[in-house]
UniProtKB/TrEMBL annotation:
InterPro entries to which the protein is assigned, alphabetical: Homeodomain-like_sf, Transposase_8
Protein name: Transposase
GO biological process: DNA transposition
An MF annotation (GO) of this entry: transposase activity
Pfam family for this entry, one: HTH_Tnp_1
Length: 95
């Protein structure tokens, strides 16, 4: 009984990684970007984590950085909601 030869992992160049990160950030859905590029979503999550700057070693600074990142994410979501609301309310009602 023979074993099948091991398959090689696909290699992704930096251009594809950058495109995947751009799609994931623009669409606000890493899963959608993974489906569009036919890449495993876990791989894109790992690329996103690697692209973030490291958290400082000082506990006080690290807590502040985490809080600022969370606030930034929340504000970005609020901005997206407001943009969608403007798009909806800028159209005159159809009679």
């Amino acid at each position: 009984m023979e074993k099948a030869p091991p398959t090689k992992r696909p290699r992704y160049d930096t251009a594809l990684r950058a495109e995947a990160l751009r799609l994931a950030s623009e669409s606000r859905s890493t899963l959608a970007a993974a489906r569009a590029l036919n890449i495993d979503a876990k791989r894109i999550y790992a690329w996103q984590k690697a692209a973030q700057p490291p958290v400082p070693t000082d506990p006080a600074e690290a807590a502040e950085v985490r809080a600022l990142r969370a606030a930034n994410k929340r504000l970005a979501q609020e901005l997206d909601i407001l943009k969608k609301a403007i798009a909806i309310f800028s159209h005159p009602p159809a009679l």
